[in-house]
Design a protein that fits this description.
By secondary structure, the chain is α/β, with parallel strands linked by helices. The protein has seven helices and ten strands. It has one domain: Alpha-Beta Barrel (TIM Barrel). Helices cover about 30% and strands about 20% of the residues. The strands form two sheets. It has an eight-stranded parallel beta barrel with strand order 1-2-3-4-5-6-7-8, surrounded by four helices. It has a two-stranded antiparallel ribbon with strand order 9-10. α1 links the parallel β1 and β2. The chain binds the ligand O=C(O)c1ccccc1N[C@@H]1O[C@H](COP(=O)(O)O)[C@@H](O)[C@H]1O. The site of ligand LGQLAAA5 has 27 residues, from β2, β6 and β8. The ligand O=C(O)c1ccccc1N[C@@H]1O[C@H](COP(=O)(O)O)[C@@H](O)[C@H]1O binds next to β2, β6 and β8.
Length: about 210
Amino acid sequence: MTKVKICGIQELEAAMWAVQAGADAVGFVFADSRRRVTLEKAAAISVSLPAEILRIGVFVNASKAELQDALEKVKLDYVQLHGDESPAFCRTLTLPYIKAVSILEKNDLDILPAYGGEMVLVDSGKGPFRGGNGTSFDWDYLKDNRFSSQKLILAGGLNKENVGEAIHKVRPYMVDVSSGVESGGIKDKEKIEEFINEVRAIKTEIESGELQ
Ligand SMILES: O=C(O)c1ccccc1N[C@@H]1O[C@H](COP(=O)(O)O)[C@@H](O)[C@H]1O
């Protein structure tokens, strides 16, 4: 069963749309972004969410102290690292982390194991920002890749139209979406519901053997 993360949450209302539609995780962006949210606002949203929802904080080149502070204040389950954090930096972290890696060509996948961590995230390297660009990469790169010791999160340009193909090709542990569930730059209830419904439908097809 593919898990779903709805990222770029800035309002409790949008978080609840995600929860009610069946999301497994929500993401708060603390990096420089139009989706940036303050620790205080994220903490207020976090405290109102059901315990079983994963809270994931998105950072770019934050210090260990900043990561730890956010983890505690927002009650984050993971920090997601979208900057130039090195494998050595990641491996010294004493908090749960997910390293995000930009994939421009197939060889970019080779470094994933070096980062360690329970999960790794692959995103598109295309676009002006460190993430949240709404652009995808060639999922065929991942067709014969299985990261047995790391759970794979697929991100980058996902939407209700393409997430089925993406899951079919990559079989990720979790899909992560931000731009694809927005209208006019803000989270859209209907798009969140449609995206999650689409993922649930694909899961059913895979489990029933209809989708090979
Ligand atoms: O969403 C942002 O603004 C952002 C800023 C800096 C780093 C990461 C960011 N978001 C992450 O980017 C990917 C892909 O998002 P999209 O669906 O293509 O818009 C996702 O992991 C977000 O968590």
